[in-house]
Amino acid sequence: QVQLVESGGGVVQPGRSLRLSCAASGFTFSRYGMYWVRQAPGKGPECVAVISNDGGNQYYADSVEGRFTISRDNSKNTLFLQMISLRPDDTAMYYCSVEIHGGTFDYWGQGTLVTVSS
Amino acid sequence: QSTLTQPRSVSGSPGQSVTISCIGTSSDIGTYNYVSWYQQYPGKAPQLLIYDVYQRPSGVPDRFSGSKSGNTASLTISGLQADDEADYYCCSYATRSFVFGTATKVTVL
């Protein structure tokens, strides 16, 4: 069965960096696009980054453009999100998700919590 | 970031049907059929219920159905059950981005 396991979250001061990872299993990782989706406390989800199956194309939400970088290692079935210049409004649960059907967040991991606070 | 508009809450008795509306614009729901719905229990990750407006992934009961008319999508839950009590979100593709709805809390009376 599809399994997505995020890691790398934690408490970080404003302006600092953090790198999230998502280990994927149960499907052919290199065939599918992947997403990072975040959800601030009490808010709806927000898709912050998308990467194509081969890593050749990436898209970002305006709120993170220039600060976040999505990447993947298909040889290790792992998705990454490098976050720099973190701000308090980046505080959220961060989920990775796989796009089995076009334009759909088919499966989600359990999430990793990022808290940006001084 | 714009959001799709959903009612804050809907409720119904066991066995009844409830419908959640999701109002977008001609830039998202009105143009694309990449409309999906997610169920989220407290403290858990969202789970896919409906994709491509009305398609159900395997394992999702046919009590859940989706539709779309113009700029508005809808999710109907028929034969309401106690474990349907959760938050529900709609989502639409919107040209190089996605827009989610505000949560609708379904309460089973």
Q: Which key features would you list for this structure?
A:
heterodimer, A: 118 residues, mainly beta, 7-stranded mixed β-sheet, 4-stranded antiparallel β-sheet, 0% helix, globular, B: 109 residues, 6-stranded mixed β-sheet, 3-stranded antiparallel β-sheet, 44% strand
Can you describe this structure?
The complex is a heterodimer of chains A (118) and B (109). Chain A has no helices and eleven strands. Chain A is mainly beta and 118 residues long. In chain A, strand 5 (45-51) and strand 6 (58-60) form a beta hairpin. Chain B is mainly beta. In chain B, 0% of the residues lie in helices and 44% in strands. Chain B has no helices and nine strands. Chain B has strands at residues 9-12, 18-23, 35-40, 47-50, 64-69, 72-77, 86-93, 98-100, 104-108. In chain B, strands 1, 3, 4, 7, 8 and 9 form a six-stranded mixed β-sheet that branches. In chain B, strands 2-6-5 form a three-stranded antiparallel β-sheet, with no helix packed on it. Chain B is globular and about 40 Å long. The mean pLDDT of chain B is 96. The A-B interface holds A 44-47, 59, 61-63, 95, 101-111 and B 1, 3, 32, 34, 36, 38, 44-48, 51-52, 55, 57, 89, 91, 93, 96-98, 100-103.
Overall radius of gyration of chain A: 13 Å
Stretches of chain B where pLDDT is under 50 for at least 5 consecutive residues are none
Mean pLDDT, all residues of chain B: 96
Helix content of chain A: under 10%
